[in-house]
Write a structure and sequence with these properties.
With about 290 residues, this protein is of the alpha+beta class. The chain contains 9 helices and 12 strands. Helix 3 runs antiparallel to helix 9 and helix 4 packs across helix 6. The longest helix has 13 residues.
Length: about 290
């Protein structure tokens, strides 16, 4: 069930589903408003998959206002994509096979455009979520991994989870030298399991003997919550030093819950108030700019 809507598939601004917002934003105009006796019908577009939704519970008690996917083309709304509709996390929370891909379409191209044009915000949101610094070198490697894996065609990808999908499709990476300024549980796990680890200015530094701390992401999931909400997450796994000839031990697992409303708010920041990172944007253009608009 969608908690946020847009006016049209090519709109960027998200709105939370409630009566006052629907009336103010959508008015009494076609194609959004369809009179129906004592239960006026409002239609809009899902902010995650761009497909038509009917807004439910605006005028009835006991039902949390939300958007329900129409599931088919709707007159007045020119865009409908069956695959993105059927796999939308708002519509049907599920565990999705990481190997599942959709064909390239307008939807996939829009995801690529977001990844390239919002790359600085993507890295900012990821860093804030994970609690450690993501360097420009690591950011570029993650973007290259995501493009090589065609993560924009993954059936679990949508317009609001691009930051976490770029992390999800990245290979295992080292934490050495990265300031960990907002993840106390991660710091504690390293200190408990890696006696040779030392910190300098919050970053892992050279110790008395060799050690290794790496991280990766697995387990993309969505699950329904009360009040028509949906929680989307991946699991970050952290590994310590591998014994000679053995496997690196798992020292920490953390659930990383997506804050897609925060990402949407950043994307919709007024240009005069926005603070952009030109270096990261230049990296994104160099790595994937040729794919935008294809």
């Amino acid at each position: 069930m969608a908690r946020y809507f847009k006016k049209m598939h090519d709109s960027r601004q998200d709105y939370e589903v409630d009566r006052d917002t629907a009336e103010k934003v959508l008015g009494r105009n076609y194609p959004w408003y369809r009179p129906r006796g004592n239960d006026p019908g409002y239609f809009a577009v899902c902010s995650r998959c761009d497909n038509p939704v009917r807004l439910i519970g605006l005028y009835t008690g006991g039902v949390t206002p939300h958007g329900r996917h129409v599931g088919r083309p709707k007159d007045g709304f020119p865009y409908f994509d069956r695959i993105s509709n059927d796999f939308c996390a708002y519509d049907r929370p599920r565990v999705i096979n990481k190997a599942d891909r959709r064909d390239i379409s307008e939807f996939g191209r829009k995801i690529i455009r977001i990844a390239i044009e919002e790359f600085d915000r993507i890295i900012y949101v990821l860093s804030q979520t994970l609690g450690f610094h993501i360097s420009t070198t690591l950011a570029e490697e993650m973007l290259r991994d995501w493009l090589a894996e065609e993560g924009y065609l993954y059936t679990g990808a949508h317009l609001r989870n691009v930051p976490w999908m770029i992390a999800y499709f990245s290979r295992r990476q080292s934490l050495f030298g990265r300031p960990i300024w907002g993840n106390d549980e991660l710091v504690a796990a390293i200190q408990e399991n890696e006696p040779n680890a030392t910190f300098e200015r919050q970053a892992l530094a050279k110790g008395d003997a060799f050690y290794s701390v790496t991280f990766e992401f697995i387990g993309h999931r969505t699950r329904p919550l009360p009040d028509a909400k949906t929680e989307e997450s991946v699991t970050m796994r952290v590994f310590g030093t591998a014994p000679w000839g053995g496997e690196a031990p798992l020292i920490l697992e953390q659930q990383v819950v997506f804050d897609d409303a925060r990402f949407a708010a950043l994307m919709n920041t007024a240009p005069e108030r926005a603070q952009r990172n030109d270096r990261l944007l230049a990296i994104a253009q160099r790595v994937g700019g040729h794919l935008v608009g294809k």
